[in-house]
Amino acid sequence: MIAAAWYSFMLLLGIGAEPPPSGPAIQEAQLEFNASELQHCLELQVYVRSMIDSTLAPPPFALALWADGKRMCEQGMVHGGISQLRMAARVLRTNAMGPVSGVP
Predict the structure, then answer these.
(1) Residue 27, pLDDT score
(2) Is the pTM of the predicted complex or chain greater than 0.90?
């Protein structure tokens, strides 16, 4: 009852004219991306793949992240794909630096 009154009050003020999205509406919002983001995802795939190819023994975790990121970009989950690819690049960069001095 109080929630309905509060919602009506907010509508009168013009705040929150629509209820927050839920279910399929949230999924559609997550799938929205623009062409430059897709291009970035594809370029990141190539960049990370070149890092993998230049590494003698790439960590299996980095390979799995790259594969997941590539798959996600191809399936239209661009934001998640970019996230996975960036994480793979971080793992590969950390691996290339070797052990940190002073840490056993």
Answers:
(1) 46
(2) no
Check residue 97 and give its pLDDT: 76
Long-range contacts of 77-80 (CB under 8 A, 24+ apart): 77/30, 77/31, 78/33, 78/37, 78/38, 78/41, 79/30, 79/33, 79/37
Break the chain down into helix, strand, coil percent, rounded to 5. Answer: 70, 0, 30
pLDDT band, residue 95 (cuts 50/70/90): confident
Q: Is the dihedral of CA 87, 83, 34, 14 positive or negative?
A: negative
